[in-house]
Amino acid sequence: xxxxxxxxxxxxxxxxxxxxxxxxxxxxxxxxxxxxxxxxxxxxxxxxxxxxxxxxxxxxxxxxxxxxxxxxxxxxxxxxxxxxxxxxxxxxxxxxxxxxxxxxxxxxxxxxxxxxxxxxxxxxxxxxxxxxxxxxxxxxxxxxxxxxxxxxxxxxxxxxxxxxxxxxxxxxxxxxxxxxxxxxxxxxxxxxxxxxxxxxxxxxxxxxxxxxxxxxxxxxxxxxxxxxxxxxxxxxxxxxxxxxxxxxxxxxxxxxxxxxxxxxxxxxxxxxxxxxxxxxxxxxxxxxxxxxxxxxxxxxxxxxxxxx
Length: 308
What we know:
By secondary structure, this protein is mostly helical. It has a domain at 45-106 and 158-284. It contains eight helices and seven strands. It has a three-stranded mixed sheet, with no helix packed on it. Strands 4-5 form a two-stranded antiparallel sheet. It starts with 5 loop residues before the first strand and ends in a 33-residue tail after the last helix. GO terms for molecular function: protein-cysteine S-palmitoyltransferase activity. The chain crosses the membrane at residues 48-70, 76-94, 174-197, 217-238.
């Protein structure tokens, strides 16, 4: 869609627009207001199955820890302290999962590559801007198209089926918290499993659980396997996310070896830009910025996202 004095190219990489570019077209502003007023959710079968499976595995771990290991214990304070710690970690992990899944990761409005929008950018003569040929939007700097979300996502790191969403500019902090709390709860569960096995062996498997010894062994072994897998996966993801934030480079940019055309925010500056503000306990809180949105029924206009 050419316009006087500048060119528009249908390409995927190296856009010239920055993340802070804005425009005043009425159609685009109403579209962005629509997005702000509804809950983001990706209607992807594989992602929804993975998200439900994640919740079921966390609930299973909580069941085993609470009803197999802690409640039958004769040490009251041991049960209370460990029960409170594990359940708090589980609640924080699932809350972070929900925030990651239901937060718009930074989607660029579809179809904003209009003549009015381009004129409002006040581009210099000869300046080149880039349009995504898949969702017909003007691509901001560092945006990439997600084939599952069917949208261009600002600072897209990757699409994670376990949270049924892209990890991008607006929800990366919640994904980091999710991996951290799952890793911590996995370590806690593994420690409790080890102590429970020692206790059961010393007591000849009598009075160490309200379940029969074979059932207890099966439940504990499965929890150990789950804890090891969850810890390995989330610890690696947590480490790679922190590394990406501190180097101000998304996973896609690293894999594509894209040379930075932006001013990098390294280390603490990168952490502040993702988590918001100076270091504080609020960084650990997945409820920061949460607000209830009005339930609404909306017709789908294409694409996998819908509002609830």
